[in-house]
Amino acid sequence: MFKTLCRQYLKSSFSRYNYIIINSCSKSMALTEPIPFSKDFLFRQMFDPVSSTYTYLLADINDKIAILIDPVVEWAERDKTIVQQLGLTLKYASCVTYVCYEQGVAFTGDALLIRGCGRTDFQGGSAEVLYNSVHSKIFTLPANFRLYPAHDYSGRTVTTVAEEKAFNPRLSKSLNEFVDIMNNLNLAYPKMIDKAVPANKVCGLYEVPDA
Ligand SMILES: N[C@@H](CCC(=O)N[C@@H](CS)C(=O)NCC(=O)O)C(=O)O
Ligand SMILES: [Fe+2]
Question: Given the CA of residue 53, which atom of ligand 1 is nearest to it?
Answer without folding.
Answer: 10
